[in-house]
Amino acid sequence: MSASSPVPPQKAPRAPSPDRPAVPPPEGARLRIVSGGQTGVDRAALDAARALGLPHGGWCPRGRRAEDGAVPEAYGLRETASAGYRERTKRNVVEADATLILCLDGLTPGSELTRRVARAADKPCLVVDLRRPPLDEAVAHWLAERRVAALNVAGSSESKRPGIHALALAFLLRLLAPCACARPPGHGE
Prior knowledge:
By secondary structure, this protein is of the alpha/beta class.
């Protein structure tokens, strides 16, 4: 699947199992994924959210600018007033409760900017190298401990780290699948 093609929503998410940790969202809420729409990690986050039926959104540069053209409308992102990436990064960090940065072999300049913005905004930020990922349970615990309701997921673009979309998507689908089973109040099955 191309990194620029949105993943269609999945009909029925899998239930949590003993080998897949649950990331409990705050009581009565479903985890919302925030991302900027760039190729690579940003799109993987949005694709995972769509596949799992999780709420998602975020900010992208004016003109829906991305390295492969325009960010697809299907992702539902809002455009910033600027065509640059910095404003998008700042808005996504500030809009979320915490930021998860996924990388391969260290941070790119854009990911380093995201980490600096999170620190300046006093927002929790976790960096995960997908070549040496921590146990899913460790990341799930980090999210649960902070009671994250809106998670900004950022990281390397596909051109900077070829193959990162597929690695990030697989990681996020495993990590976030339990969140898809949570139902907001009044939406029981």
